[in-house]
Specification:
Number of strands of chain A: 10
Distance between the termini of chain B: 88 Å
Strand content of chain A: 5-15%
Number of domains of chain B: 3
CATH class of the largest domain in chain B: Mainly Alpha
CATH superfamily of the largest domain in chain B: Leucine-rich Repeat Variant
Order of helices and strands of chain A: HHEHEHEEEHEEHEHHEHHEHHHHHHH
Order of helices and strands of chain B: HHHHHHHHHHHHHHHHHHHH
Number of strands of chain B: 0
Strand order of the largest sheet of chain A: 3-4-5-2-1-6-9-8-10-7
Number of helices of chain A: 17
CATH architecture of chain A: Alpha-Beta Complex
CATH topology of the largest domain in chain B: Leucine-rich Repeat Variant
Oligomer: heterodimer
Radius of gyration of chain A: 22 Å
Largest interface: A-B, 62 and 65 residues
CATH superfamily of chain A: Spore Coat Polysaccharide Biosynthesis Protein SpsA, Chain A
Structural class of chain B: mainly alpha
Radius of gyration of chain B: 31 Å
Distance between the termini of chain A: 65 Å
Chain lengths: 467, 340
């Protein structure tokens, strides 16, 4: 009896493995087509014209900052230096307990001013609004802590322009990041309501971004390099394909452009979820599809900036368990969309894909961890076959990773060749050196989801040498 | 079970290992080849068979997205080489129903910038071939050449064309003034808004009258553009009318009025002071905010902190306006002490 149950469990895990890998292969093929088309499109765009034109739609960039004393100044400087005809930068200090506010005050010569802004969204109390004597397009909102969603809503209340771009305070951007994101919107503002784009990972984004594209290093420390690969796979193998197929379900918090009237219509960022980005994307899809409206949300392959990745396993697990929790919360909340033809590709493919590859993954992983050693011990299959299967999984993963590296390099040509070769060599070892931590984080996240835990558990920022 | 898992593992390995190797080589060799190509000087022209191939590719209408982009790339290559077939080919690419493909042709026309290219851009704006905002960006980049060709657009039957005609005349203060004034009474509010926005770069009694009339337009975004224009066209004399808009029913009109009053600087102060006791709290707040932004509050707080006028402004703007002013003044005093 035990052997039969074990056999069923092992077969279920095997079936799950094959199904997810086949899905990924199908998505990679779509992503490769999308990447090529976007490359042609980028080559035909004149960023110089968009950068100088008064017809390029102005954007309000909103940065939510909570305990970001180490990174906030570099992030805001990169945002103020964006090459764009007209944009404002709104930094929302969400009740930081560290020196975030004083760093901003010193770096940008801030002075308090009373601004009578609209209160479209109810937020925690705004203590003061600051303007910069040096940068007329910088506004800093100092408010009581209410979480990232609340901070972004406070920024939306102050925003003056028709498009908003939510970004993270630990991200340093390319000069043309906003032009890259807005180039689609400018061509069709009536239909394109949301855009996101690829971001790279580094331990210290400011340092990496100081090196010009083409010669930029990749952090070779395995933990950071594996996160870099994780992002590449997520954006190039998955999100590009989702974008092409009409179910781009995660506009990432580190760079998300939205038409502001859409955010106002759906009620802004929600505080009811652990994170705000994926839930908002689901909500916008749900609303527009339910009402039968014509719209598009896209993910672009261009690398628009570099964001900070945790440099210790503890911090990484803390971040990834939170991501797992919010995915589970969102997919469960929008369960009425699963396999519902009313929601077209989002309901028929996108939400079930998330359910299969993200929400259910920890369950299968747990079953595999428990049943496989037992199956070997009971002689269901040999240790040699087990090891061969592990190698097969590792190389399947490596092949998908190599595809993501190729797509990225074809699109942006940012990194040094030697670093790309290093990433390619690291790829097969992902299964043993990195994946176990992610499995642990996902199990932890799923457990906390089941316990309805909604805490943020923000990871401590990486220590850096003073600027 | 052992046999099944073994088979799956072998098949997966047989597929994955070669794929990983091939893709890795593609990354490294592709990058090496790209770097070599970048070091070589760009080719100066296209000749013989290559030119014929590119012309063929650019002439052929493509059904697939892939084919369309290859067509665009061929056109770009021919344009770089100043091939004589470009004017003929670009017309057909411009007519592509896919706006992204048409945009590529628009961009190429902007780069060429010759008179025939300007004519084609104006005609594309008229016909609606490609996104009009993109065509407008190219036409504006080519100023002053397109100017006279834009005036006839103001009399077009299509409001979208009239809108872009009015918008694009902004850098040409000597052109189309009377037509622009008459467009401030156009049946389409977008055209009225564009006309009044462009009039902001001109002056004279007729322009002033048209701008002030638009401040009472029934459509809110026309009032927004009129408010912004009034500051430029009418100057300080517009302040009393602009302060009236601080109590407008639309938030964006009030914001535009505040922006315009800020632009007038201290010249707006007398009018703003008269609104401090307005029955509408938005108007009172707005007036106090602008008085703060033009530096009048700080001037009073430094020069005469016990002034009843300052108290009136604080009463209109609220406690936070007072706190912010006091913090700023404290900073100024500290800096003065440090400097001394």
């Amino acid at each position: 009896m035990t052997t039969e149950i074990l056999a069923v469990l092992v077969l279920a895990c095997l079936g799950y493995l094959l199904l997810t890998n086949l899905t990924y292969v199908a998505l990679v093929m779509v992503a490769a087509v999308e990447n090529t088309l976007r490359r042609y499109e980028t080559a035909s765009q004149g960023y110089d014209v968009l950068a100088a034109s008064r017809f390029t739609i102005p954007v309000s960039v909103i940065v939510a900052a909570y305990d970001e004393e180490t990174s906030v100044v570099a992030a805001v400087e990169s945002l103020l230096g964006l090459e764009y005809p007209e944009h404002e930068v709104i930094v929302v200090n969400d009740g930081s307990k560290d020196a975030t506010m004083s760093r901003l005050r010193e770096a940008f010569a801030l002075e308090p001013y009373e601004v009578f802004a609209r209160r479209v969204f109810t937020t925690e109390e705004v203590r003061a609004i600051y303007r910069s004597a040096d940068h007329p397009n910088l506004v800093v909102v100092d408010k009581a802590n209410g979480g990232k969603a609340d901070a972004l809503n406070a920024g939306l209340n102050v925003a003056r322009f028709r498009y908003v771009c939510g970004v993270d305070a630990d991200t340093v951007f390319e000069r043309e990041a906003l032009l890259t994101g807005m180039r689609l919107v400018v061509a069709d503002p009536a239909r394109i309501i949301g855009v996101t784009s690829h971001l790279a990972i580094a331990r210290d984004p400011g340092k990496v971004m100081a090196v010009p594209a083409g010669n930029r290093p990749i952090d070779r420390r395995p933990l950071i390099a594996y996160q870099h690969l994780d992002y590449l796979r997520a954006f190039f193998n998955n999100r590009l394909a989702w974008s092409k197929l009409g179910f781009m379900l995660c506009s990432v918090g580190a760079f998300q452009i939205w038409r502001r009237d859409v955010l106002e219509e759906v009620g802004g960022y929600s505080r009811a979820f652990t994170c705000e980005d994926i839930e908002l994307t689901f909500r916008v899809h749900e609303r527009f599809l339910r009402e039968g409206r014509d719209y598009e949300i896209h993910c672009l392959p261009d690398t628009v900036g570099t964001t900070e990745g945790p440099d210790t396993v503890r911090k990484l697990v803390s971040q990834r368990e939170r991501w797992q929790r919010v995915i589970a919360e969102t997919v469960w909340h929008y369960r009425f969309m699963w396999f519902n033809p009313r929601y077209r590709s989002v309901g028929l493919v996108g939400a079930p894909f998330y359910l299969l590859t993200e929400v259910l993954a920890p369950a299968f992983e747990l079953v595999a961890i428990l049943s496989l050693p037992l199956a070997i011990a009971l002689g269901l299959f040999s240790l040699e076959v087990f090891l061969l299967m592990c190698a097969a999984i590792a190389f399947a993963n490596a092949a998908l990773t190599a595809c993501a590296i190729l797509l990225d390099d074809l699109q942006s040509r940012i990194y040094r060749r030697s670093d790309l070769a290093w990433l390619l060599l690291l790829a097969p070892l992902d299964f043993v050196l990195y994946r176990p931590f992610i499995v642990w984080a996902r199990l932890k996240g799923s457990w906390r989801f089941l316990r309805r835990d909604r805490e943020w558990y923000k990871f401590e920022r990486n220590a850096r040498a003073p600027a | 079970m052992d046999e099944l898992v073994l088979r799956v593992a072998v098949v997966m390995l047989a597929l994955a290992v070669p794929t990983w190797i091939v893709l890795s080589l593609a990354v490294v060799l592709g990058r090496t080849s790209y770097e070599r190509k970048m070091r070589r000087p760009p080719p100066s022209g296209v000749r013989g068979r290559e030119a014929a191939r590119l012309v063929r590719r650019a002439s052929r209408s493509a059904r697939t997205e892939w084919g369309k982009w290859r067509r665009v790339a061929a056109l770009a290559r021919l344009e770089e080489a100043h091939h004589p077939a470009v004017p003929r080919l670009i017309k057909s690419v411009l007519a592509d129903p896919d706006p992204r493909i048409a945009t590529a042709a628009i961009r190429t026309l902007g780069t060429i910038g010759d008179e025939w290219a300007v004519d084609l851009l104006v005609s594309a704006l008229h016909e609606g071939s490609g996104p009009r905002s993109r065509i407008a960006a190219e036409l504006e980049r080519l100023a002053p050449d397109p100017g006279p060709k834009l005036v006839p657009l103001l009399r077009d039957w299509n409001p979208a064309v009239r809108f872009w005609g009015a918008t694009l005349l902004r850098p040409y203060p000597e052109l189309g003034e009377s037509s622009l004034i008459s467009l401030t009474w156009d049946s389409d509010p977008n055209v009225r808004a564009a006309a009044v926005e462009t009039l902001a770069t001109r002056n004279g009694p007729a322009v002033e009258a048209a701008t002030l009339a638009c401040l009472d337009d029934s459509v809110w975004f026309v009032r927004v553009h009129a408010a912004r224009a009034a500051g430029h066209v009418v100057g300080a004399a517009a302040a009393p009318t602009l302060t009236r808009l601080l109590a407008d029913e639309r938030w964006w009109v009030r914001t535009a009025a505040k922006d315009a009053l800020r632009g007038l600087g201290t010249e707006a102060v007398p009018s703003l002071l008269s609104v401090l006791t307005h029955s509408d709290s938005f108007a009172r707040n707005g007036a106090a905010e602008v008085l703060q932004d033009v530096g009048f509050v700080d001037f009073l707080a430094l020069d005469n902190p016990d002034s009843p006028l300052l108290e009136r402004i604080f009463a209109a703007g609220g406690e936070r306006l007072r706190e912010a002013a006091e913090t700023r003044v404290q900073g100024v005093e500290e800096r003065e002490v440090q400097a001394a």
